[in-house]
Amino acid sequence: MKNKRKKRFLIILLIIISPVVVLKTYFGVENAIYENSIGKMNLQDNLINSLVDSKVLNQDGYDLHYYVSGKKNSDLIVFLHPAYSDHRAFDQQIDFFSENYRIITIDLIGHGLSKTNETQDKLDASSRHIAEIIELEGYDSAHFVGVSLGSWIAQYFALNNPEKVKSLTALGGYDINKKSDISASVNIGMIIRTIFSIKSLRQKAAEMCCGTEKGKALFYNTASYYERKSAMVMPGIIKIMQDRERTETRFRTLILTGEYDLDSNKKMATEWDSKLTNSKLSILNGAGHCANIDKPQEFNEIVETFLNEINN
């Protein structure tokens, strides 16, 4: 009788453990192949020649890391990175825009060096963080450039602080005033990867966000500080993405999508553009979701032209 119980227990334990072993084995092999392919790429160790000042905004129980560069006493541009990434997503923009603008890049809460520690704050707290940062740096308004998640946070900041926004550039984003239509299957897949292999999560994010091999490798590197605990800030997206009555904004909006982005994302971007009276829509050829990483020169020139139109 005892042997039967023992055998039954072992069978149940095997049933429970087997999927975990399989998943960990799969993700481990997947990551080894991916990291080897990155190792073969001749990536530049440093994409920035400009002087960048690293700063910290102290919050209740945690620190927000942000980075300042560019021309002093010039118009300010705040760059906000995509999910899983950090401020390094804009390494290929810093030198280009530093010639004529003051630049701030931020490690959003839970990303990069901005660890959550024991705080209950979520991503929606980024609106408050940004307001404090630009005030500390001596500015009362800025141009905002957000990629994917960063574009949602830029919109949320504008919703709460419309007088502080000179313009909004949104790449790979869509209207936050409509509840998110993000694919449930994508969310579940990323949650599973977060549980079983954070490296696999970084890899999948890189593949989803970039269309070029170099772009994928660069994105993967920018996600190196994302960890399991980082996922605790993500529910803040629910507060950001809500059905709201849209109010007309005074600032101009540039909506950008990559040619190889998901059709659903491009469709939502087009719908968003159609609802605004002071916006412009452009597509970056040969680029994925994070076109600023895939095609930095083309992205930089489009955004520069847009900003010049506003300033002239």
What does this entry look like structurally?
It is globular, with a radius of gyration of 21 Å. An eight-stranded mixed sheet has the order 1-2-4-3-5-6-7-8, sandwiched between helices. It is α/β, with parallel strands linked by helices. Helix content is 46%, strand content 16%. The protein has helices at 2-39, 91-98, 126-136, 149-160, 184-196, 198-209, 213-222, 236-240, 263-275, 291-294, 296-311; strands spanning 52-58, 63-70, 76-80, 102-106, 142-147, 165-171, 252-258, 279-284. The chain has eleven helices and eight strands.
Specify the overall morphology: globular
Largest sheet: 8 strands, mixed
- Largest sheet strand order: 1-2-4-3-5-6-7-8
Overall pLDDT: 86
N-to-C series of helices and strands = HEEEHEHEHEHHHHEHEHH
Outline:
The chain is an alpha/beta fold and 312 residues long.
Provide keyphrases for this structure.
312 residues; alpha/beta; eight-stranded mixed sheet; 11 helices
Fold topology:
Elements: H1 2-39, E1 52-58, E2 63-70, E3 76-80, H2 91-98, E4 102-106, H3 126-136, E5 142-147, H4 149-160, E6 165-171, H5 184-196, H6 198-209, H7 213-222, H8 236-240, E7 252-258, H9 263-275, E8 279-284, H10 291-294, H11 296-311
Parallel strand pairs: 3-4, 3-5, 5-6, 6-7, 7-8
Antiparallel strand pairs: 1-2, 2-4
